Amino acid sequence: MKYKVSLLTHQFSRDGVVAFYNSLIMQPVFVEGRIAKIMGALGNFEKADFFKALDFVPDALNLFQSLTENKIIVAGHVDEKGIVQWYADEYTGRPKVKIMYMILTDLCNLACEYCVIEQFASDHVYRHMDEKTAEKALLTFSPLALAGEQSKIILYGGEATLNWKILVYVLSRVNEMKEQGLYPQTLEVTLNSNGTTITPERARMLKELGIRAVAISLDGDEIANSPRVFKGGQASFSKVIQGFQNCVDAGIDTGISCTLSEESLARFDETLDFLLKSGVKSLGFNLMKPTKGYSVSEGYYERATECIIKAFTVFRENGIYEDRIMRKASVFARRAIFPFDCAATGGNQMVIAPDGAIGICHGTLASRENFVSHVDQGFDPVANPVWQEWSRRSPLNMPACFSCPALGICGGGCPTQAMVESGSIWDVHKSFCIHAKMILEWLIWDLYDSSVSQRGAPPAT
Fold this sequence. Notes:
Layout: E1 2-5, E2 9-14, E3 17-22, E4 29-32, H1 33-40, E5 45-46, H2 47-53, H3 60-69, E6 73-75, H4 80-91, E7 99-103, H5 131-145, E8 152-156, H6 164-179, E9 188-193, H7 200-208, E10 213-217, H8 237-249, E11 254-259, H9 262-266, H10 268-277, E12 282-286, H11 300-317, E13 321-322, H12 323-334, E14 349-352, E15 357-359, E16 371-374, H13 385-391, H14 415-422, H15 430-455
Parallel strand pairs: 7-8, 7-14, 8-9, 9-10, 10-11, 11-12, 12-13
Antiparallel strand pairs: 1-5, 1-6, 2-3, 3-4, 14-15, 15-16
Helix pairs in contact: 5-6, 7-8, 11-15
Keywords: Iron, Iron-sulfur, Metal-binding, S-adenosyl-L-methionine
Protein name: Radical SAM core domain-containing protein
InterPro entries: 4Fe4S-binding_SPASM_dom, Aldolase_TIM, Elp3/MiaA/NifB-like_rSAM, rSAM, rSAM_sf, Sulphatase_maturase_rSAM
């Protein structure tokens, strides 16, 4: 039988060692560089050719078995495009809404330079969600939340706490609906907030009403936080810190949503030190998305990813969960396909605007693109063409991603940003592509270094 190096196999080199990596199997095989060079020259080969070319390798049989088991080497007739299509059929095309974003208001008391909220037209009339709309939204989500998988409601804005009355109503009503069997007991409600209006009393009320977690937007110390100012231009840092601490003191699981602005990257050691001293146990880094009011410098995504990796290595030694790398590290460790990086892809979320419009991505709240239904109309994601299309928007279904080493672990980034960058959700999210490839290569060599440390010798043959 003829063999070949799979079209899904990629090589990563460092210090004379080569990592062979199949982008869907996701189990690296480490070899000496000279072995990789010989294998690259074999073309289509018989098994005997392999052993003849590598007769200097003492355990060539074990190497061959490892290479075939992990699909680095495959039978010559294997159709890799057909294999990718099988994975695409297996993992995509079945929208199932598990997350509902409730935009309680599109108004915010801050004027962060990089925020999508700042993209509203100058004559935009800001709006709070009213009780009637909130009730209809909760009823719309009820059958979807009962469908069997872990479901979640995310209270969002603008600044959601500016509509405090409805925020309290939603939390209270969810508790009632759980008792009535309209929501599963496992449903979680979380809040994203800038923290500036969360007083000790409000924090205690959130805890009493059963909020699962609060994510406070905080980009680092006072200097790193300088783009996050009140509408009048005053610094917000002290108010944010007060709100964060009030949530912690109330016993709420409180995390940080840290956007890596140019300011925070410029002083990342200070940013990292601040986050460590904050006492936070979970956080997520956000990559900048250029807006009409805020641009990023050349090389931003490389620098931001390097900083995220640096932070992750520190955080894991201190028991701090960082979401952006962990969502990839966990699937890498399990060798599990990661078809979607955001819940909108996969058709797994719905967004309720303050006026009751239903969309798939909160990033298009200003333009209202892909807001195609309303809480007054009823909503079935399985029958909706937007949710159907987004449920397939994965690298597994994108020809441009076929030859990418991060095919199985990337998730495709943000469709909305791909549309901004290139005109279609089906275009590659180029800036995220940089990030995903860097994370993958780091994971591969982190595994290698860990193996060397544990065994005292490289696992390479």
